[in-house]
Design goal:
- InterPro entries: PPR_rpt, PROP1-like_PPR_dom, TPR-like_helical_dom_sf.
- Residues 108-211 form the PROP1-like PPR domain.
- This protein has 427 residues and is an all-alpha fold.
- The protein has 22 helices and no strands.
- It has helices spanning 2-37, 45-54, 62-74, 81-93, 97-109, 116-128, 132-144, 151-163, 167-179, 186-198, 202-210, 218-231, 234-247, 253-265, 269-281, 288-300, 306-315, 327-333, 340-369, 376-385, 399-407, 413-426.
- α8 (151-163) runs parallel beside α10.
- The longest helix has 36 residues, at 2-37.
- The termini are far apart.
Length: 427
């Protein structure tokens, strides 16, 4: 009797749990589908989903994305706000102001009203271009459109002001941010520190860091490490690194580079090699110039550390090219090295870096022609995106690619004329 009762109770619990999970799934599914079904797009649900899987800011190339959006528009199927917002994310990633202008005009044509995220993206690109005037013009447009600025938009404006070292504008936007009832976040503090660093006001930057009312993020620590490196303050850098470790934050190539350089300046070679090992374990390789500085420092110290030089060269990824200005001194300093293999390795690295830089220069030129800012930092990534439009990690043809081959084809001659005229209008 008790066994039957136990089995019945277990059955009831299983049924109730199944019903609860089923209801939960239905709620989540409807939450996902609702924005698609009420979209202003004329694409059907299958097409919308397929495009969303392809248009990922970290995977799709700007070439393929522009073709997708323009072909959808020219075929009379208005892209939805999700597709356009993803396109804006890609243009922001590659710092393409002309592409942002194109997607802005398209969003207006399909009846969409750009919100604060769009303007924040445009102002971020303006900051990278050190174009404060255009950023201010966009902010004036936000006011005219009666759009309520959010924290990301204000952070973008502070970034644009900090990039040109305009402390007065930074203070003005901080005051506006607070008057709108918003609070400074970790990114805002990092931007204020960066403004002080660019102006050479290192003590002021560290005061801002020490007085943060929120927990600092990795961006704030990056600026703090850079300030310590420029001040050549090894003890303070190690103090901040201990705090950085306690917070268990994401470490970047910039933080490792600053810590290595400040260690080398103070002849703390073992600590510098420890940070090299840490960057290798976390796959956050240091900046190219840091490799050159480290090799010269290790070869110029009283007891030349050939073994450490060999270890750095062995672990240096091929896409991290040491600036060629360092190689002459490095080759001269190793001319009397007893390790013949090390000398051969340095010559081999030099030849590989020369060939790689020549290849990268072609992509830099192409990105520059597209209007990208700081193109060398994107050239290596762009190289992987360029051949097939989508990152090489995707090797198999998915349903999304088949959808594009079926629905987004090359236009006819009349459509080509329309496309060229439309692109000329938005360029």
């Amino acid at each position: 009797m008790y066994s039957r009762l136990t089995a019945w109770l277990g059955r009831q619990q299983w049924l109730s749990r199944k019903a609860y999970l089923g209801q939960k799934r239905k709620v989540n599914l409807s939450a996902i589908l609702q924005p698609l079904t009420v979209s202003h797009s004329s694409l059907n649900l299958k097409e919308e989903r397929a495009l969303q899987q392809i248009i990922e800011p970290k995977r799709v190339s700007p070439h393929l994305l522009r073709k997708i959006v323009m072909d959808i528009y020219l075929h009379g199927k208005n892209p939805s706000e999700r597709i356009l917002f993803a396109a804006i994310g890609v243009a922001t990633r590659w710092r393409l102001m002309q592409e942002l202008s194109l997607y802005y005009e398209l969003s207006r044509n399909v009846g969409l009203r750009p919100g604060p995220p769009f303007y924040a993206s445009c102002i971020t690109v303006c900051a990278c271009r050190r174009d404060l005037n255009t950023a201010l013009r966009l902010f004036h447009e936000v006011k005219q459109e009666s759009i309520e600025p959010d924290l990301k938009l204000y952070n973008a404006l502070i970034f644009a002001s900090a990039a040109v070292g305009d402390a007065e504008k930074v203070k003005e936007f901080v005051a506006l941010l607070q008057s709108d009832g918003l609070q400074l976040d970790e990114t805002t503090y990092a931007l204020l520190m960066e403004c002080c660093r660019l102006r050479g006001e290192y003590e002021e930057a560290l005061k801002i860091f020490e007085s943060m009312v929120v927990s600092p993020n990795y961006k704030a620590f990056n600026v703090a490490f850079s300030v310590c490196n420029e001040m050549n303050n090894y003890e303070l850098a190690m103090k901040y690194f201990e705090s950085f470790e306690r917070h268990n934050l994401y470490s970047s190539e910039l933080s490792h580079s600053s810590l290595i350089e400040v260690c080398l300046k103070n002849e703390r070679f073992d600590e510098a090699m420890g940070f090299f090992d840490l960057s290798h374990r976390k796959r956050h390789y240091v900046m190219e110039s840091t490799y050159g500085i480290a090799l010269l420092s290790l070869l110029q110290c009283p007891n030349r550390r050939y073994s450490d030089v060999a270890r750095i060269l062995k672990r240096k990824p091929a896409y991290r090219c040491i600036p060629l200005v360092y190689y002459k001194d490095i080759i001269d300093l190793t001319s009397h090295c007893p390790d013949v293999k090390l000398r051969s390795k340095i010559i081999e690295c030099y030849k590989q870096d020369v060939a790689h830089l020549q290849e990268i220069d072609r992509y830099v030129k192409e990105l520059t022609e597209m209007g990208s800012v700081g193109p060398r930092m994107f050239a290596i990534q762009y190289k992987g995106y360029k051949p097939n439009g989508i990152c090489s990690q995707r090797t198999k043809k998915s349903g999304c690619i088949l959808f594009l081959e079926e629905h987004v084809r090359s236009s006819t001659e009349s459509n080509l004329f329309l496309r060229s005229s439309l692109q000329g209008k938005f360029a």
